[in-house]
Amino acid sequence: MTKTILLIVLFLIATSSFAQKKYTISGTIKDEVTGEQLIGATVKIKELPQSGTATNTYGFYSLSAVDGEYTLLFTYIGYETVERRISLHQSQTINIGLSPKSELKEVVISANKPNNDNIVTPQMGVEKLNMAQINQVPVLLGERDVLKTISLMPGIKSAGEGNTGFYVRGGASDQNLILLDEATVYNASHFFGFFSTFNSDAIKDVSIYKGGMPAEYGGRLSSVLDIKMNEGNNKSFTVQGGLGLISSRIKVEGPLVKDKGSFMISARRTYIDLFLKASSDSTIKGSSLYFYDLNAKANYHFDDKNAIYLSGYFGKDVLGLKNTFGTNWGNSTGTIRFNHLFSNKLFSNTSLVYSNYNYTIQSFQSNDNFKATSKITDLNLKEDLQYSVADSHTLKFGLNVLHHSIAPGSISTTSSSSFNTRSTEQRYGLENALYLSDEWKANSQLTFLYGVRLSGMFLLGPGTFSTYDASGNIVTSTTYGSGQSVKSYFNLEPRFSASYQLNDESSVKTSYNRNTQNIHLLTNSTSSTPTDLYVMSSNNIKPEIADQVSAGWFRNFKDNTYEFSAEVYYKWMQHQIDYKDGAQLIANQDVESQLTFGSGRAYGLELFFKKKYGRFNGWIGYTLSRTEQKFAAINNGSYYPARQDRTHDLSVVGIYQLNKRWSFSGAFTYGTGNAVSYPTGKYEVGGLTTFSYSQRNGYRMPASNRLDIGATLEGKEHKRFHSSWTFGIYNVYSHRNPYLITFRDSKTVPNTTEAVETSIFATLIPSVTWNFKFK
Predict the structure, then answer these.
(1) Which residues partner with 755 through β-bridges?
(2) Does pTM top 0.85 for this prediction?
(3) Residues 371 and 518 in one domain
(4) Chosen domain end from 98, 118, 147
(5) Is position 168 within any domain?
(6) Biggest alpha carbon distance in the chain?
(7) Which pLDDT does position 442 carry in this prediction?
(8) What string of H, E and C letters represents the secondary structure of 159-189?
(9) Last residue in a domain, options 76, 98, 120
(10) 3-state class (DSSP) for residue 201
């Protein structure tokens, strides 16, 4: 497969050399006011309607044309269009600054350009969000949230209230790769999932790929959430932030060297713990309950061909009840990137990326005193290149070498504790990949995006590694030295997408892609918790594999003001992982003996209607889907609904700009209840009732629905200062959405069982936030 693609590329290069002499126009596009590079800005040649390209992640573009006189059009949503007349008699570098429109007459809810690029591009299953859109959507306690907003898109389902986890096209929550400036974020939640780790003040661009995944991404089965941080204002200093009911935030940005380098620092912290200190209850006073985030980024452009970027994220949660228990967990990431322009056609990005996730749980009770810890650390070296082979071909290729270090968990105790000290060996692995892809504009109607990714996983020593039989008993145990290869896997992952343009306003698309996953999440909880355990592919655990095919029809209306799409998909998954009943996961050296392996399938229909422009805009998303699993040891080897299976999922979002100062928004969601296991019998042992279960996920929780509304009042404009107020009501009609259902013996009717439903938010929750900015 790889050889075939290389031969095709060499053929394209060779044939292009015999074509009519062409010259290349290249450069970067930035925000004229802040100097921020604009991702996805459009560059077109007015005299050649079929020509055109978009800037990459770093604002770079490159396109070619034969000798002649042309008019270049530079456009980006919410910015003034720039026309530049050129005489193309040799290759040229043209850097452009676009100015934000002085008065945005239309509220825009999509990062796509104001044309029919959604019709032309072969990419399927991708959603792009800008911060203007995210800031308008009402959320819990006024905290603008990237993860909560993407869950309003079709094919992406929230894991439920009190949870930032999400499911994409039937995949489990750990099958989503979450990247912050190329660094993996393993646990993207605060307060056990009530808030995400992403402070929206620090975010520049959000893209989520749920199908037809580009070859440069890999390592997860279902999706990639790619988040880019702001680079900072290289023109002038600004300070902005906000004061809310439970948290405050602040961002400072400005030039390091005007027009050449900038920095950005953004911080957020909750202060519920300050109220706890004032409590008269001695059991609460002195308890801990807070989280914080710190985002930082800096860049420097040496010249038009070389630039360096440094970025980092640090976040932590601290929760504890005085003299009883305590827990803390956190993420830290760091990225160093170097951009180099070899020529006006070849762009390079080299990255060194660090990521760490760790947690600690402590019990301070004298009889149960213990401390449990776990962590996962990654170090990743990446090289990504983009080469404009010809006007109709854009080639991307590269490699990455990723080193994993996982400390699965250890428990330390005191002499008075009833628990025993336990520890597990640290595991090491090397995950490598090579990729190659090409976007080929075959003609004015047909565009292909095809490529391949070769991934390799190496489990390394030192340590003792065991194999197990079906009952979980050790069959063999072998000790390996440091750096010795224990087990290796190689997988070829082909990717293909195509778009056929029926006319200027409609197209049909299709895609196929294969993904593999070598980092696996083990949990026996129905929601994401900080104690979730990560393991690598090993001599017992094979890489998970998913193949997905999809097809869709895309249609625009009224000069691309309205968009409609209908996509169908089918995904089949191999080597899926589940735990055995009664499994012990924490600090278990033989944790792999507690697992069972099977397969899965997911299929569905996604409908999406969106109004992009005007005083009133928004979208409606609907998903009809099924997700099923099959394990030999569960349900007699028959397919059963996965816990993320949700037949119907509906979201309706509306945004209305009343005038220059007032805007209103609302979001309604409805979803079929999650699949759960209910007891089918019970028996009594020693006076205690024990429930028995006969079928995994054979029942449904009640359906959930909720309406949230919000309003923003912009303050009067001042030369050096601006402020606004954001108001919101979460769960307007106080609907009790089920979070958990438990069973117990009835306290009023002897010999009967009653179900107890728990809801996190049983009433409406108002919020208000004051936002400010000093220019």
Answers:
(1) 743
(2) yes
(3) yes
(4) 98
(5) no
(6) 92
(7) 87
(8) CCCCCCCEEECCCCHHHEEEEECCEECCCCE
(9) 98
(10) helix
For 57, the domain range is 20-98
Buried b (16+ CB within 10 A) or exposed e, 761-774: beeebebebebebe
- Say how many C-beta atoms besides its own lie within 10 A of residue 531's C-beta: 16
**560 dihedral zone (left: phi>0; alpha: psi -120 to 50; beta):** left
Q: Are strands 704-714 and 681-685 parallel, antiparallel or unpaired?
A: unpaired
Which token pair is 20?
A: 């009519």
- Residue 335: which CATH number? 2.40.170.20
- Contact call for residues 70 and 44 (beta carbons, < 8 A): no
Over range 374-398, report the average pLDDT: 91
Structure tokens given for 665: 């928004």
User: DSSP state, 50?
Assistant: T
Q: How far is CA 526 from CA 677, 695, 746, in A?
A: 11, 17, 25
| pLDDT tens, position by position, 474-487 | 899 999 999 899 99
Residue 475 resides in a domain: yes
pLDDT(10) > 60? no
Same domain for 287 and 424, yes or no, is: yes
The count of structural domains within the chain is 2
Alpha-carbon distances, residue 384 vs 37, 182, 352, 480 (angstroms): 18, 12, 12, 34
Q: Which of 515, 309, 518 is nearest to 403 (CA)?
A: 518
Is residue 114 a part of any domain in this protein? no
Place of tokens 């900038």: 262
Q: What residue type is 172 in one-letter code?
A: A
DSSP calls for 570-632 = EEEEEEEEEEPTT---TT-TTGGGGEEEEEEEEEEEEEEEEE-SSSEEEEEEEEEEEEEEEET
Q: State how far the alpha carbon of 583 is from the alpha carbons of 16, 408, 522, in Å.
A: 60, 15, 10
Rounded Cα distance between 486 and 478, Å, is: 9
Cβ atoms of 100 and 79 closer than 8 Å: yes
Residue from 660, 519, 492, 647 nearest 104 by CA: 660
Q: Residue 546: beta bridge partners? A: 515, 573
pLDDT in tens, 711-749: 999 888 788 888 999 898 988 998 888 877 777 777 777
Residue 710 lies in a domain: yes
- pLDDT computed for residue 697 by the predictor: 84
DSSP assignments along 325-392, one per residue: EEEEEEEEEEEEEEEEESSSSEEEEEEEEEEEEEEEEEE--SSS-EEEEEEEEEEEEEEEEEEEEETT
Amino acid at 200: S
CATH number reported for the structural domain that contains residue 58 in this entry: 2.60.40.10
Q: Are residues 592 and 451 in the same domain?
A: yes
Model confidence pLDDT, tens digit, residues 160-169: 765 667 899 9
Between β-strands 189-190 and 195-196, what pairing exists: parallel, antiparallel or unpaired?
Answer: antiparallel
Q: Alpha-carbon distance 503 to 119, whole Å?
A: 9
